[in-house]
Predict the 3D structure of the following.
Amino acid sequence: MILEDSFYQGKDVVKIAKQLLGKVLVTHIGGIYTSGMIVETEAYAGAADKASHAYNNRRTARTEVMYGKGGTSYVYLCYGIHHLFNVVTNVQDVPHAVLVRGVEPLEGIEHMLARRRKEKLDSTLTAGPGALSMALGIHTRHTGVPLSGTEIYIEDRGIKVAAKNIVAATRVGVAYAAEDAYLPYRFYIRDNKYVSKGKGL
DNA sequence: CAAACGATTTTCT
DNA sequence: GAAAATCGTTTGG
């Protein structure tokens, strides 16, 4: 089943980040259907989190979408090259989000290979936030689209991830966030090949 | 209006 | 292991 708004609008972004592991991210963009199981996420806790773009309730045109209700997408261009896909959570005016850092390819693998200009399936196809966005066809133009719509959505296919196989770690690439860089806000499925190689602290 | 800077990935040494 | 690639957003003059 497709996750409904109520799933995203829970108050605890860290819990939602954990619950997204094992769910299936589906895109239907440009007439091409691709999907992958989420294996790695990071929580960004809005106003209280120095690593978040919305730290201290900073509002800019770019971050405005995070202040909307949970269940929409926030796609951010990083380093001028990489499109990073986030899920907006919580209710209106609370700018929480979950970054999807890794998925395991399920359907449309040939299309993902074409988008990534690769010949063979390997763990680099969708491991890492920039890589999976390119593979799934996610672009900054998709920022603000509802996850209950037709272009991008997340399904629960009944995949269960045992608590002992969920690893908590520090987030990647957020050293600038000072003490908040040490928060255990990164979650991934133990021993999965499609978890990014990025290092925490 | 100009300048600096990334929630990264790839490539070259 | 180190460095480049590359551009929208944000900040400062």
User: Anything to note?
Assistant: Strands of chain A lie at 24-29, 32-44, 73-78, 82-89, 96-107, 152-155, 166-169, 186-189. Chain A has a mean pLDDT of 97. Residues 60-62, 76-77, 79-81, 140 of chain A lie near DNA strand C (CB under 10 Å from a C1').
